Automatic annotation (TrEMBL):
Identification of the protein by name: Signal transduction family protein (GGDEF domain protein)
Subcellular localization(s) per the UniProt record: Cell membrane
Species name: Desulforapulum autotrophicum (strain ATCC 43914 / DSM 3382 / VKM B-1955 / HRM2)
Residue ranges constituting the EAL domain according to the UniProt record: 27-281
Residues of the full protein shown: 438 to 719 of 719
Length: 282
């Protein structure tokens, strides 16, 4: 199964899945499976992890997370599915499938009068190489009736570290339309702090690695600088991966109000997410 894989570097310079001695064979077979899975609706699906505002005590949105239930290998982790798609030109199809399914699900909420929820969707670096990305996003929003200001796209910190003009211009166009932009996994490489000023961004998601308390307390200093910079720039902070009450309290002391983590909820089915939102007192 998938646990036996090792990694190697693809022509694009990225890590890809590989079997020792049989370069790319397993990856090629799996990619063919992924191509077929994209044409069906019984293997690829999304789960939703609620995001909460603890000041309001409410769920304010959710992040859509990709799942691929392979018929023989079982559940494939999303970063593997995404890496596979990036190495085999399936990323555009996969990315649009995710966005389309997520927006279709969001329209279920809208039809039930729940118009305050923010839908977060991850975009991989390679999706920004698609010159029609913005047009495709617009078309999916139009088809599903989801408003631009209900959608947030999450891009990873590494994309901010090496800001590419094309990526920045796409993000700017999305933001001008009202789509929000979040930097995911923030704090992994703290050198990007200075890019926050130039990067078109609404939200910073503090990475799970910073949620864990370090022995020397250095993480707290990093969090302090991220929080004060974001406050100065008017950027929202979402703390990711909070699992315990102690972690929650620590970030409360840092004046953080938005959280996403197992302490509140693991990723759940679309139906379960709708139920949670509908159960909230208005
Ligand atoms: P991410 O975007 O940072 O998503 C958060 C990940 O952290 C999720 O893992 C979530 O289940 C996990 N998580 C949240 N709270 C906790 C916690 O309290 N404890 C622990 N241990 N984990 C927590 P998941 O679903 O396995 O996704 C992993 C990564 O795969 C995502 O990280 C994202 O980078 C990527 N990914 C997932 N779905 C997509 C997608 O549709 N498109 C793209 N391009 N990437 C995706
Ligand atoms: Mg994310
Ligand atoms: Mg993250
Ligand atoms: Mg993460």
């Amino acid at each position: 199964g998938i646990a036996a894989e090792s990694t190697s570097t693809s022509p694009s310079g990225r890590k890809c899945i590989d079997l020792p001695g049989q370069t790319g064979l397993f990856a090629r077979v799996l990619a063919a499976d992924l191509g077929r899975a994209l044409d069906r609706d019984d293997q690829i699906f999304l789960v939703y992890q609620p995001q909460v505002d603890v000041d309001l005590g409410r769920i304010v949105g959710a992040e859509a997370l990709l799942r691929w239930k392979h018929p023989t290998h079982g559940l494939i982790p999303p970063h593997i599915t995404v890496a596979l798609a990036e190495d085999t030109h399936l990323i555009s199809d996969l990315g649009m499938r995710v966005l389309s399914d997520a927006c279709m699900h969001h329209s279920v909420l809208l039809n039930q009068g729940e118009t305050d929820q923010i839908l977060s969707v991850n975009l991989s670096a390679q999706q920004f190489e698609d010159e029609f990305l913005v047009e495709k996003v617009v078309e999916i929003l139009r088809k599903t009736g989801v408003k631009t200001n209900m959608l947030k796209v999450e891009v990873t910190e590494s994309m901010v570290l090496t800001p590419d003009v094309k990526t920045i211009s796409i993000l700017k166009r999305l933001r001008e339309m009202g789509v929000r932009v979040a930097i995911d996994d923030f704090g992994m490489g703290h050198t990007s702090l200075r890019y926050l000023k130039e990067f078109p961004v609404d939200t910073v998601k503090i990475d799970r690695s910073l949620t864990l308390e370090s022995l020397d307390g250095i993480n707290d200093h990093i969090v302090t600088s991220i929080v004060s910079l974001c406050e100065a720039l008017g950027v929202q902070i979402i703390v990711e991966g909070v699992e315990t009450e102690e972690q929650l309290e620590r970030f409360r002391e840092h004046r953080c109000s938005f959280f996403q983590g197992y302490f509140f909820s693991k990723p759940i089915s679309g139906e379960a997410y709708v139920e949670l939102v509908r159960g909230q007192v208005k």
